[in-house]
Amino acid sequence: MKTTVVIILIFLGLLGLMWLGSSNKKLTESSDRTKSVLSTSEEVYDFGTISMKNGDVTKEFIITNSTDKDIFVPSLTTSCMCTRAYLVQLDGKIKGPFGMPSMSYVPRVNEIIKVGESRVVRVVYDPNAHGPAGVGRINRFVTLTDALGGELRLEIRAVVTP
Questions:
Q1: Claim: this prediction has a pTM higher than 0.85
Q2: d(CA 98, CA 154)
């Protein structure tokens, strides 16, 4: 009986490892994602060296609908809990915070960006979120997904010091 249980546990463990391996493969294949029809003049921003003692840093990206059709944006997510994203509407109202989907509930954006309109995506990075282990180079991503499945990926970089 004990031998059977051990064999079953080993088998389930191997299946779990195979499942994790296939999940990681999907993550690395994300470079094959469809590019959004939304545009920005700046997809990457480097804060340079930032200090944990100075707290949060913020970068605002302007995204534009340069197409001839209104674009529906259902979601805005971040790659890490240390990063929050907000969508600033034309009237100045702010939607968010939006975060990392696998770690907590992330509300839907459900925003229509009309032809020729722009929105601001405000990205806030907390260098203290990972504690002392969080020093060094960081790269965080914010992904805006349109209704066609296209993704606009914004990146922030920094070197975090105590």
A1: no
A2: 14
Q: Do 68 and 10 share a structural domain? A: no
CA-to-CA distance for 67 and 59, rounded, in angstroms?
A: 25
Task: Return d(Cα 72, Cα 149) in angstroms, integer.
Answer: 10
3-state secondary structure of 52: helix
- What is the extent of the structural domain holding 118? 34-161
Nearest to 76 by CA among 14, 124, 134, 8: 124
* Amino acid (one-letter) located at 76: L
- Digit-coded pLDDT (tens) for 100-117: 998 778 889 999 999 999
Split into its structural domains, the chain has a count of 2
Cα gap 24→64, rounded to integer Å: 32
Q: Looking at the structure, tell me whether residues 41 and 26 fall in a common domain.
A: no
Whether residue 124 contacts residue 45, with contact meaning beta carbons closer than 8 Å, is answered with no
- C-beta neighbour count of 66 within 10 angstroms: 13
Burial class (CB in 10 A: 0-12, 13-18, 19+), 117: middle
38 and 13 share one domain: no
Same domain, 93 and 17: no
